[in-house]
Specification:
Largest sheet: 8 strands, mixed
Number of helices: 15
Number of strands: 17
Strand content: 15-25%
Bound molecules: zinc ion
Distance between the termini: 17 Å
Shape: globular
Helix content: 25-40%
Radius of gyration: 21 Å
Amino acid sequence: MSTQSTPAASGRPAAPSTLITGIGSLVTNDTAYGTGPLGLLADAAVVIDGGTVAWVGPAGSAPAADERFDAGGRALLPGFVDSHAHLVFAGDRTAEFNARMSGQAYSAGGIRTTVAATRAASDAELDANLARFVREALHQGTTTIECKSGYGLTVEDEARALRIAAGHTPETTYLGAHVVAPEYADDPAGYVDLVTGEMLDACAPYARWVDVFCENGAFDGDQARAVLTAGVERGLTPRVHANQLSYGPGVQLAVELGAASADHCTHLTDEDVAALAGSATVATLLPGAEFSTRAPYPDARRLLAAGATVALSTDCNPGSSFTSSMAFCVAVAVREMGMTPDEAVHSATAGGARALRRTDVGLIAPGARADLLLLDAPSHVHLAYRPGVPLTAAVWRGGVREL
Ligand SMILES: [Zn+2]
C-alpha cells in the first residue's frame, strides 16, 4: 500500500504543493530547525510538495504554495513510527485477558491460541483484519508501522502472513521463532532447523527483518543466535524480543549481532544497559505489554541516563498488548517509566525511526516524507497531559491528507 504520489507515472498533473501555516508548536526532531531534542519551533509553517517536506521555518517567512492549510495554533508532529507490532492474526484473547486481570499469570504459551485461529483463517480474513488495524493506528497518528509474522508457525502460514503484511507496510519482520510450533513441542531443535531452513527460504522474499522471542518458554540464547544468524545470511537485519519476562541473553545477543533494536528491555543488568548505550541497537520499550499483563515497567530513565537510544512502540498483539495507540504509550511512559513528555514524544517518532533504520520518517525537515500529525491541542505535551483523549485533528501520509 503505497501512498506516495507518483504523478509522472500516472500521467496526471503533479499534486499541488500545500502550505501548512499557523502551527502553534512544531516538533521537527531536527535541531537545525528549533530548540531542544525535539527541534521545537513556535509560530511555524511547513510546505509539503510531491510527497515530501519541502520547507520548514517561521510562518512569517514561508514561501507561497498552491494550497494553504491553517493549523489554527495547534501542534504539528511527525507521524508516529510504531516499530513493533504483530498484526497478522485472527480471533482475539478476551477470555485470557479477563482471566489475567482476575489473577492468573502471563506466559508465552498463550500465543498458541492465536496460532490456531490464524491458521484456520482465510487470506482475505487476515488481510482485512490487518487493514483494519493499520487504519486504526493511522487514525491515532501512526504513519509508519512495522508488522511481524509469528502466528502461523508452518512454512506456508508464515510465508502467507508476510506476503499479506508486505501489502500494507515495507517494514515486515519474519518471526517464525515466536514460540515453538505445537507440532514440534517435543522437538524444539527440529523446529529451529525448520525456522532457519525451509521456512526462512519461503519467508525471506517478503521480509526486511528477522526477529526471535528470546525468553524462557520460547527460545534460548543459542537457538536465538541460530535464528538471527540464518536470517542475516539471507539478507535480513535482526531485531530481538529481549529480556521481557526475565533476565537473559537477548540484549547482549542483539548488540553483538548488530540488531536494529532490542525490544522490551524490561529486565536489564548493568551490563545490558552499558551494551545498549555503547551500540547502535535501539532499546525499544513497549509499555502496553506491562500495562496489559500487570507487570513492572522498564526503567526508561536508566537507559536514557546511560545514553541509550530509546524507542516507544505499541507491541500491538491480541495477547499481551492489544492497543494500537502510540499516544497511550507516550502517556504511560511519562507517568510510569520516568520519561519527560519531550523524551516520550521523541522516542515515539525519531526513536521508532532509528529502530527501523529509517532516515526519511520520524522528523519534519526538507526531504523527509510528509508524514504529519496535527494534534487537536496546542502542544505535544497534551499527549501525556490528556491521556485517553482522542487528539488527532489531521494526518498526512506521504503528503496525502488521510484524515
Ligand atoms: Zn512483540
